[in-house]
Amino acid sequence: ATVATDEQGNFLNVNADTAAAAIAGALNASEFVLMTDVPGIMRDVKDPSSLIQELDIAAAKKLIEEGIVAGGMIPKVTCMISALDAGVTATHIIDGRRPHALLEELFGSSGSKQ
């Protein structure tokens, strides 16, 4: 868990993806990558062929509203939106279980990109 403090010195347990998105924005990063244990954002979590390769902020918000993005993927997509709003150029959700997934995403197209 990512630990932080508030103005009064109280300890806070901060979602690691939320912290990473804020750091990426503060650093004016060009790319922000989240690794997870699924191929990326899928229209149907039971169908790997339903992987959404690319979407914009409006489409991501709509997928959340429609319940297509649900459960643990909601905070990840929300963090991606936050990073983009903070000035990050592109964000990616990739399957961290795959060998070389990060290299493939940065130099190819294996996960979901916003």
Automatic annotation (TrEMBL):
<keyword id="KW-0067">ATP-binding</keyword>
<dbReference type="Pfam" id="PF00696">
    <property type="entry name" value="AA_kinase"/>
</dbReference>
<keyword id="KW-0418">Kinase</keyword>
<keyword id="KW-0808">Transferase</keyword>
<feature type="domain" description="Aspartate/glutamate/uridylate kinase">
    <location>
        <begin position="4"/>
        <end position="95"/>
    </location>
</feature>
<dbReference type="InterPro" id="IPR001057">
    <property type="entry name" value="Glu/AcGlu_kinase"/>
</dbReference>
<dbReference type="GO" id="GO:0005524">
    <property type="term" value="F:ATP binding"/>
</dbReference>
<dbReference type="InterPro" id="IPR001048">
    <property type="entry name" value="Asp/Glu/Uridylate_kinase"/>
</dbReference>
<keyword id="KW-0547">Nucleotide-binding</keyword>
<dbReference type="GO" id="GO:0006526">
    <property type="term" value="P:L-arginine biosynthetic process"/>
</dbReference>
<dbReference type="InterPro" id="IPR036393">
    <property type="entry name" value="AceGlu_kinase-like_sf"/>
</dbReference>
<dbReference type="GO" id="GO:0003991">
    <property type="term" value="F:acetylglutamate kinase activity"/>
</dbReference>
<protein>
    <recommendedName>
        <fullName>Aspartate/glutamate/uridylate kinase domain-containing protein</fullName>
    </recommendedName>
</protein>
